[in-house]
Design goal:
Blueprint: H1 2-8, E1 9-14, E2 25-29, H2 36-46, E3 51-56, H3 65-71, E4 75-77, H4 84-96, E5 100-103, H5 123-131, E6 135-141, H6 143-146, E7 160-166, H7 182-204
Parallel strand pairs: 1-7, 2-5, 2-6, 3-4, 3-5
Antiparallel strand pairs: 6-7
Helix pairs in contact: 4-5, 5-7
Organism: Nonomuraea insulae
InterPro entries: Plipid/glycerol_acylTrfase
Keywords: Acyltransferase, Transferase
Length: about 220
């Protein structure tokens, strides 16, 4: 995918040195486009980490693509089913094996009208609490210009720029040793999403909204 990534976009990559080069780590990122997993994977790979991605389970059943996804160590996710717990269990094992998991806490591309991160789901927080793995916030911008959400044809011209910035580890120390109760996980998730949003605000040079967009309570 690297030659394709180079062909499609120019890159503005910042602070890649903040990514731990070894050990299990959770990469928490905002989600703007179906293209950003590929572009982010290129960024992570070039900064010394093999990106393990959580992917829709249906992709694993597609001929050829399913075999490729399995070979990439991707983790199948059945959203809205009891099997979702199984994906977290697999993620915990990947972290124990020293993998870097690319996690989209929003669960889908943002629906915020101005493309800021939405309220996150608690999977990444639960994984961090149970594993003790560091959470690194990563924000990006530009993938939505290449392939806007919901569109199938990329907008190749003029050539877009993919901007990425890596923040310091999210400070989750106050939650250490606590039980994974709903209120704890929600607070952790809010801290994680705030860190991602702060990086995106720096990247965009704009002030983020004080309250994140909540698609359930809009």
């Amino acid at each position: 995918m690297k030659p394709l990534s180079r062909l499609l976009v120019k890159k503005d990559w910042r602070r890649g040195e903040r990514l731990p080069r070894t050990g299990g780590v959770i990469i928490a990122a905002n989600h703007l486009s179906w293209a950003d997993p590929v572009l982010l994977s290129h960024f992570l790979y070039n900064n010394g980490r093999w990106p393990v991605i959580l992917a829709k389970s249906g992709l694993f059943r597609v001929p050829l693509l399913g075999r490729a996804v399995k070979g990439l160590l991707a983790i199948p996710v059945d959203r809205g089913s009891a099997e979702a717990a199984r994906s977290l269990s697999m993620s915990s094992q990947r972290l124990a094996d020293g993998c870097a998991i690319l996690f989209y806490p929003e669960g889908t591309c943002t629906r915020d009208p101005d493309l800021w991160p939405m309220v996150g789901k608690t999977g990444a927080a639960r994984l961090a609490l149970e594993s003790g793995a560091p959470v690194i916030p990563v924000a990006h911008w530009g993938a939505q210009e290449l392939l806007p959400y919901g569109e199938k044809r990329p907008r190749l011209f003029p050539r877009k720029t993919f901007h990425v910035i890596v923040g310091p580890p999210v400070d989750l120390s106050k939650y250490a040793g606590q039980e994974p109760q709903a209120d704890v996980l929600r607070e952790m998730t809010a801290d994680i999403m705030a860190a991602v949003t702060a990086q995106l605000a720096e990247l965009r040079g704009k002030k983020a909204p004080e309250t994140p967009y909540d698609p359930a309570g809009r």
